[in-house]
């Protein structure tokens, strides 16, 4: 089930350093939301706060509210582990588990959480997830081979299959194509447009064409200078951002007249 | 065909500084430096024959004269850069040779003298009722196996968990303090570990106590830091991305550690543990104090003295009885057996790292 995420007055800190400030945004279900902006502006940091992955870094904390369909993700009785089961993530570099086969990688979300499931159900789930990630035809004859033997693009799709196998509500993607060639990138982009029927997708990208191609909504992050916190400058439908943005800074960034 | 330019002799002095480096495209055929070196060796042989033959002196003369001869010939014909290259090659090779001398000599000597008693009786009988000829080290071998196994049983869980704590949980001052003390412990003299275990048991059981378990505890003091260090290094090598991938699937931290981090590092951990065992299996001093020696076979580490191979070798050599040669032969065989055990453990370590390493699938 795709869910809506409402973010209000979100400040993100690393220790005493305020990395991102004052984010207010509503992320629509069953759509792709792209986050663009220069390096170091806090868009990846913001993405990671959506499933509390930033807490892995010591000293990281947030102020403000992130609510997913009425559930406060930073509520006092919300377990970050539960949040991450509902909000999956795909990383910049493909990271299949090296000790596991392709099959085990896809099943990892269940196996690692010791979910009991019959062999045939698990087989079905693996097949469904790999088909969902457009990888089934390429790997169906070698499911027991190590995942690290696949090409970079295949590994990234394997990671997407692994993420969707646990049936999350939201899928976060942190520059999923930056380590891939154009053909693999195209495969992943096609996959995203298929997946948005079932999930809410948020993608961080450095590639503005990619944001324009795949997303419905685009958010532009920027920062005033080094050491200053990053801010969400503009959040609008993608068409508007790329044709007639509200803010001068957005226009400058998109047209390459930045800085 | 390149035109052969006559090679000018290397010039020295102020004029050479300002001139561009002379190009030498002439290099000696492979056999020439060898022949020159052989000539140097021949001169060395002559020299040592004149001064009275001595193996060590001959080798020193040969290496020095051979190296100098090759350098001079190369300098004259090939130029300075190649000559320096040949000189450094000779020095490095000589250093390697020197490093190999004790190793080869040791193995040669131990195998040569130990092989004599490397027989069935040595492995099948203890020293009970043996005076002079015969007898074996069955009791000592069993003692070493039992005490080393106990040590491993004590050290690996503690060491591994400590390493996991250091890598996955600890931070800041506490982490630095623990790491520092683990490093100090790695260098602790083994006799200190033995005295520590002895003092500990004397507090409980009174003076004169000798038990196999005391030895295991003394050896654990030496083994735990080695296990911690090696496991820590390997756990650090597990990419953070794998931990993040696991967290992002909603896997709790402890499951991430047991099911992702440790399986990824298991080859390195196994290798480290095996090498740590090899490190303590030949320890003598702590066992001398804590376990003592006995002539009979004792399988119970909680009851009385046990024999171990290093202590057995020590006593056979220092208190051989009359006539001494049989006991001294047994000491050499015990030494050989220890070397074989350590070598075997090293081979096992290599096999572990080969078979348990994550497969790349290519």
Report on this structure.
The complex is a heterodimer of chains A (259) and B (362). Chain A has 259 residues and is an alpha/beta fold. Helices cover 35% and strands 25% of the residues of chain A. Chain A is built from ten helices and ten strands. Chain A has helices spanning 43-50, 80-86, 102-111, 119-132, 136-139, 152-165, 182-195, 208-214, 238-243, 248-254; strands spanning 5-14, 17-27, 32-36, 60-68, 71-72, 87-90, 170-174, 200-204, 217-223, 230-237. The N and C termini of chain A lie far apart (41 Å). The relative contact order of chain A is 0.19. Chain B has 362 residues and is mainly α. Chain B folds into two domains: 2-115, no CATH class; 123-355, MetI-like fold. Chain B contains 14 helices and no strands. Chain B has helices at 14-18, 31-50, 55-77, 80-114, 120-124, 138-169, 172-186, 190-205, 212-237, 240-248, 253-281, 285-290, 309-318, 325-355. In chain B, helix 7 (172-186) crosses helix 9. In chain B, 36% of the residues are buried. The chains are: A alpha/beta (259), B mainly alpha (362). Chains A and B meet through helix 2, helix 3 and helix 6 of A and helix 10 and helix 11 of B.
């Amino acid at each position: 089930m795709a869910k809506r995420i409402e973010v209000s007055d979100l400040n993100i800190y690393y220790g005493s350093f305020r990395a991102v400030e004052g984010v207010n945004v509503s992320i629509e279900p069953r759509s792709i939301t792209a986050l663009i902006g220069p390096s170091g502006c806090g868009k990846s940091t913001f993405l990671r706060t959506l499933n509390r992955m930033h807490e892995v870094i010591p000293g990281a904390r947030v102020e403000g509210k992130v609510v997913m369909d009425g559930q406060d993700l930073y509520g006092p009785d919300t377990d970050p582990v539960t949040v991450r089961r509902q909000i999956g993530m795909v990383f910049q570099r493909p990271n299949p588990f090296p000790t596991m086969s392709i099959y085990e990688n896809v099943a990892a979300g269940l196996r690692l959480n010791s979910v009991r499931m019959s062999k045939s159900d698990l087989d079905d789930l693996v097949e469904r997830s790999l088909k969902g990630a457009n990888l089934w035809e390429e790997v169906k004859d070698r499911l027991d081979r190590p995942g690290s033997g696949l090409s970079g693009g295949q590994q990234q799709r394997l990671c997407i299959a692994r993420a969707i196998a646990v049936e999350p509500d939201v899928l976060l993607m942190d520059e999923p194509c930056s380590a891939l060639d154009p053909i693999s990138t195209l495969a992943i982009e096609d996959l995203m447009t298929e997946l948005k029927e079932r999930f809410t997708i948020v993608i961080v990208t450095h590639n503005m064409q990619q944001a324009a191609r795949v997303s419905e909504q685009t958010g532009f992050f920027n920062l005033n200078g080094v050491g200053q916190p990053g801010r969400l400058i503009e959040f609008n439908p993608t068409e508007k951002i790329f044709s007639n943005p509200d803010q001068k800074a957005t226009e400058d960034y998109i047209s390459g007249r930045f800085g | 065909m390149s035109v052969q330019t006559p090679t000018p002799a290397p010039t020295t002095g102020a004029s050479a500084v300002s001139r561009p480096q002379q190009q030498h495209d002439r290099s000696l055929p492979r056999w020439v430096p060898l022949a020159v070196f052989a000539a140097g060796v021949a001169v060395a042989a002559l020299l040592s024959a004149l001064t009275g033959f001595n193996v060590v002196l001959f080798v020193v003369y040969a290496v020095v004269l051979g190296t100098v001869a090759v350098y001079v010939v190369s300098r004259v014909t090939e130029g300075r850069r190649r000559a320096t290259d040949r000189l450094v090659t000779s020095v490095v090779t000589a250093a390697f040779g020197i490093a190999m001398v004790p190793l080869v000599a040791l193995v040669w000597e131990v195998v040569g003298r130990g092989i004599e008693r490397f027989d069935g009786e040595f492995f099948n009988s203890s020293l009970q009722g043996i005076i002079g000829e015969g007898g074996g080290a069955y009791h000592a071998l069993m003692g070493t196996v039992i005490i080393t196994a106990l040590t491993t049983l004590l050290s690996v869980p503690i060491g591994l968990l400590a390493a996991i704590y250091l890598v996955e949980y600890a931070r800041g001052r506490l982490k630095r303090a623990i790491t520092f003390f683990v490093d100090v412990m790695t260098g602790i003299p083994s006799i200190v570990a033995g005295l520590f275990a002895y003092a500990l048991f004397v507090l409980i059981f009174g003076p004169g106590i000798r038990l196999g378990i005391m030895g295991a505890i003394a050896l654990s003091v030496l083994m735990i830091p080695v296990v911690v260090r090696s496991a820590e290094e390997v756990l650090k090598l597990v990419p953070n991305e794998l931990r993040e991938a696991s967290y992002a699937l909603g896997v709790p931290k402890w499951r991430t550690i047991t099911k992702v981090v440790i399986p990824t590092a298991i080859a390195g951990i196994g290798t480290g543990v095996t090498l740590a065992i090899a490190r303590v299996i030949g320890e003598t001093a702590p066992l001398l104090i804590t376990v003592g020696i006995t002539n009979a076979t004792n399988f119970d580490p909680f009851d009385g003295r046990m024999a171990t191979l290093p202590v057995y070798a020590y006593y056979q050599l220092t208190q051989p009885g009359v006539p001494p040669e049989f006991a001294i032969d047994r000491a050499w065989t015990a030494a050989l057996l220890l070397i074989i055990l350590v070598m075997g453990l090293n081979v096992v370590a290599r096999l572990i790292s080969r078979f348990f390493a994550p497969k790349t699938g290519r």
